[in-house]
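At your convenience, could you comment on the folded chain following this short note?
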Amino acid sequence: MSSACARFVALLLAIASGYVAGPETTLAQDVEPRALLPAPVGTNAVGAAFSGSFGDVLLDKTLPVEDLDGAIIGLAPSYTRYFNTFGVTTRLTATVPLVTGSWDGAVQADPTTPVDTTVDRTGFGDGVLNATVFLVGAPAMTPQEFRDYRAKTVVGFNLRVKVPIGQYDPSKLINLGSNRWQVAPALALSQWIGNLSLEAYALAWLFSDNDALLGDNVLSQAPLYAFQFNVGYNFNRNLWLSAGVRQTVGGRTTLNGVERDDPTRNTRLGIVIGLPLAPQHTLKLAGTTGLWTTAGNDFNTLVAQWVYIW
């Protein structure tokens, strides 16, 4: 393969893969229930989520690549605290994932000569800051007040920011960091009917440009919109089950000012169970899969998350 051809193929692959920014890129489109779960002011939580995504992870099927098989494994420690903000509950969470990934595929320099390619990466992914303000139905509460609290209708505003601190090398095709800021404002609604919960979310991912894609190429991305609905049931306060579906649309990319025909249209299904381990310790097990996907999202994800609350 000539150097010019190799660079062109690599550039196309990097655009289609979204530069594979670790599990946050993959899991950002997965189903996440109970985002509007309040707690007493002053509550702290530390956690560690172990996740794995396997399959055709973030690859454009129109590119000259065959038989892609990818695996992304991540360990994401997190810290959460609940605050009183003008009488309502506010939750702040910070996460920095440690990621390892491997991708295998056949790059075709011409129609008759596929070249097997394997890529491995290990390092830190982009950090995530997540803020939720409970606008309706979850006033700031003391631990004593929270014991008698029963959620009914809860409305919240969420802002998620991905900070580009992950491993990134402009000369590499696949990186664990994205080299761009990503911001996602969201509105969420949760309705409780006894032990049954109904949840709906709408959000938009907004992206800054990556101006160092395989050198000095500039990649821009239009907003990516997501809509989600979850149904859950509490067997008791710490044992619960939830199932949800998430639809994402948009996100068309532009390379060096030239728009590409690659909008995202994906539907994913997820099931999550919360298990009490011991006083102040919980375990969350989750699995998600693609029901209907465009290129690059036909993958399965498994997550196990431990949380300690005090």
Notes: The chain is about 10% helix and 60% strand.
